[in-house]
Amino acid sequence: MQKETAGDAPSAPTTRVRHRKRNSDVGAGAGKPNGSHLLVNDSKKYKSFLIRAYSTVWMIGGFALIVYLGHLYITAMVVVIQIFMARELFNLLRKTHEDKQLPGFRLLNWHFFFTAMLFVYGRILSQRLVNTVTPDKFLYRLVTSLIKYHMAICYSLYISGFVWFILTLKKKMYKYQFSQYAWTHMILIVVFTQSSFTVANIFEGIFWFLLPASLIVINDIFAYICGFFFGRTPLIKLSPKKTWEGFIGASITTVISAFLLANIMGRFLWLTCPREDLSTGWLHCDPGPLFKQETHVLPGWISNWFPWKEITILPVQWHALCLGLFASIIAPFGGFFASGFKRAFKIKDFGDSIPGHGGITDRMDCQMVMAVFAYIYHQSFVVPEFLSVDKLLDQIITSLTLEEQQALFMKLGQMLQEKVIGS
Amino acid sequence: MRILSYFLLCFAFSHTTIFVFFFSFFALSANLSSFSSLFLPISASKSHFPIDVILLIFFAKNKTLRAMEEENVTSSPSTPVHRLRHRRRSNEVVMDGDRVNASPLLVNDRNKYKSFMVRTYSTLWMIGGFVLIVYMGHLYITAMVVVIQIFMAKELFNLLRKAPEDKCLPWIKQLNWHFFFTAMLFVYGRILSQRLANTMTADQFFYRLVTGLIKYHMAICYLLYIIGFMWFILTLKKKMYKYQFGQYAWTHMILIVVFTQSSFTVANIFEGIFWFLLPASLIIINDIFAYIFGFFFGRTPLIKLSPKKTWEGFIGASVTTIISAFVLANILGRYPWLTCPRQDLSTGWLQCDADPLFKPEPFALPAWIPEWFPWKEMTVLPVQWHALCLGLFASIIAPFGGFFASGFKRAFKIKDFGDSIPGHGGITDRMDCQMVMAVFAYIYLQSFIVSQSVSVDKILDQILTNLTFEEQQALFVKLGQMLKDKLS
């Protein structure tokens, strides 16, 4: 996990840098498959690794607890992570000297952050918010009108931020202010695209959030292990510690574990059911044909020496293979992008929130690419497969009011009529 | 008669620019000579008509162009380029015009007759071409918007590029165009998908191809983007990292700015040309009248970013824009060609039921209007009230787009965004306020005028892209039965 944070030539003798130098030694030394290096270095670094192991255990433990608590808490965790990530990134390219002369500028960043959060989460959670407040008449009307004018509200907030920005332009600071403005937009786009897609995935079923995240973690860990034991040929100039052997070994392991993990996770209703509203209670649902077990008879040439004659496969495992393939081959490019970015702007780490690991963005760089892919894959290939006339009718009945249903009916009739006339 | 009376009203404000605008628009649909004899007090007889009209147009263009070049004026032009000389001379004209003095106008007019010929010529071509394209229809306007945005993107891509670094990076231009193509596919695919599907008939091969493309549209665009992303990372060169990341961020910002506003413009066009023509005209009118009012009454400077703009010009232009929004909406709202939405990608004539927004309603003037006012009640199209909001935004908030562009040019020490249009600068110089207006017009349209909710759209999309024709018909029948049961 820490190969990405290794720099070229650490100069300041801080504890973290000393750790990384020693780890680089380990990485370089492990080029020769020599078991003694590992044990020798291990006893020296036992104390220094304790910190990293401690924070990793806390991260995984907290993560498991939140998954157990449910969709809303996972969403809250995602929101908190993204606030910290945005703060790290906002502070990254800031110059304190110029900032002293621009008093309201930091506030402007958080104004745009709040607008983006309102826009993005409003779009994704609007339907579920409506479903939550249906019993209460007053809140229902308030929420539906907010949703109707949601885009207008967010636009007026954005325009007020835009006008504020122009009115605070100061002579001789134009270039700095415009660069900060562009930087703010880029950060917000990067952070909110992936977090909004993550939240959308969560409400489709925790499975679609947990599986991609686990695959990235597994890919990282096994890339380190395989590189540690077999690493010889360097992979890319951007990250000199990564090796082809580590890459290929991790790919194979990730794909296999995607297949197995999907089987294990797919058996729990808590993970596979979508959540239709913002409640936090237990979920009951019909999981859908994706999670129903099918038995496959193994072909003859395997069953001779393999003890099982047939295996039960959930159809979702085939989708998990695609996710695993992406996680092993394309998601590491997110890490390369982050490494290149840090080199370009001569930064060691994005921040130092997590002891031993660097900032939150350091941990989330590959996750971001994976979250976007998981969402798009889910929307393009998983959802349409199982849409049928009955399911759509169900959706129409549950999510539309009577007037909306009638409007839909009329529009559909018009379009079908035009098609019939045209053909 | 109504139309002519409205014209006289506008004519009372200014005899130059509105005349020019409507002249070109109505020349297509009215007899040229009869119109001119009504509106040209200068030319006594019809035989002198062409020369006087041309002189009038040139005079009008001078003011138009000087108003349009307010945004391009910078502090101290150094190189004696032909264009800069124009701008310096017009600086002096504007400063002289602060004193309410009519003679500098005529004096300078004769001197600059030749040099303004170029600007007038290009403005004439721009407005003429624009009117022709509006006449030809939705698809051609969309094509014009696409062409404008390609040129704008090219200008902006080249703006912050440094030649020596570019020589070491052979593929950087292709990468930019790759992202451009991906953004175009994504944005226009989303907006035009429904209309594209309606253009194809049910049983052809193309129908299945198109619906398949629409279904996997997001996945295709994402794939293209990821390919560009990986291409970018694989071409990162040592010691060029900062430049490459800067170019990557710059490319994203350009594409977002250009495609947001052009996609919203195209969406507006297909809701009805009225919703594209009205905001665009309001911005032009605001520019022109800001110049005119600043010319005659300008005294207090408005903002440090653009030293030539004045509070008098700003307020005068706001009032004029709002009034002309009200009037223009009435005129433009009478033509079905402008008000009907287009449901597919055909180019023929449009017939549709007039939206209740465009049906005239009588409006009794309130009692405080003085007795000598000849009309006691007017016919008002309900859309005119919406046009008032559009006019308010165009006069107060849209100029901030111009301030943003001026500040940007000062920050990066550029004179103009490009030089495509002779005498005006680049296309981005002309489009900076239009971009802010287009986004507002779309959001206003979707929030306050189009009454369909988001969920109906989404489900309709799902029905039309994921079900076959027979399944859609089955759903339709079942839904009809269900609604009948509920109502009975």
UniProtKB/TrEMBL annotation, chain A:
Assigned protein family: Belongs to the CDS family.
GO cellular component, one term: endoplasmic reticulum membrane
Cofactor note: Requires a divalent cation for activity.
Function: May be involved in the synthesis of minor phospholipids and in modulation of IP3-mediated signal transduction.
Membrane topology, record value: Multi-pass membrane protein
Provenance organism: Arabidopsis thaliana x Arabidopsis arenosa
Protein name from the UniProt record: Phosphatidate cytidylyltransferase
Taxonomic superkingdom: Eukaryota
Enzyme Commission no: 2.7.7.41
Keywords from the named record: Lipid biosynthesis, Lipid metabolism, Membrane, Nucleotidyltransferase, Phospholipid biosynthesis, Phospholipid metabolism, Transferase, Transmembrane, Transmembrane helix
One Gene Ontology MF term: phosphatidate cytidylyltransferase activity
Predominant localisation class: membrane
UniProt-listed GO biological process terms: phospholipid biosynthetic process
Subcellular location, record wording: Membrane
Cofactor names: Mg(2+)
Stretch list, region Disordered: 1-32
Residue ranges crossing the lipid bilayer per the database entry: 57-86, 107-126, 146-169, 181-200, 206-231, 243-265, 316-338
Top-tier EC class: transferase
Catalytic activity: a 1,2-diacyl-sn-glycero-3-phosphate + CTP + H(+) = a CDP-1,2-diacyl-sn-glycerol + diphosphate
Pathway, per record: Lipid metabolism; Phospholipid metabolism; CDP-diacylglycerol biosynthesis; CDP-diacylglycerol from sn-glycerol 3-phosphate: step 3/3
UniProtKB/TrEMBL annotation, chain B:
Record's catalysed reaction(s): a 1,2-diacyl-sn-glycero-3-phosphate + CTP + H(+) = a CDP-1,2-diacyl-sn-glycerol + diphosphate
Biochemical pathway: Phospholipid metabolism; CDP-diacylglycerol biosynthesis; CDP-diacylglycerol from sn-glycerol 3-phosphate: step 3/3; Lipid metabolism
PROSITE patterns: CDS
Enzyme class: transferase
EC number: 2.7.7.41
Subcellular location: Membrane
Upper classification of the organism: Eukaryota, Viridiplantae, Streptophyta, Embryophyta, Tracheophyta
Name the UniProt record assigns to this protein: Phosphatidate cytidylyltransferase
Any one Gene Ontology molecular-function term assigned to this protein's record: phosphatidate cytidylyltransferase activity
Source organism superkingdom: Eukaryota
Family: Belongs to the CDS family.
Cited InterPro entries: PC_trans, PC_Trfase_euk
UniProt record, GO biological process: phospholipid biosynthetic process
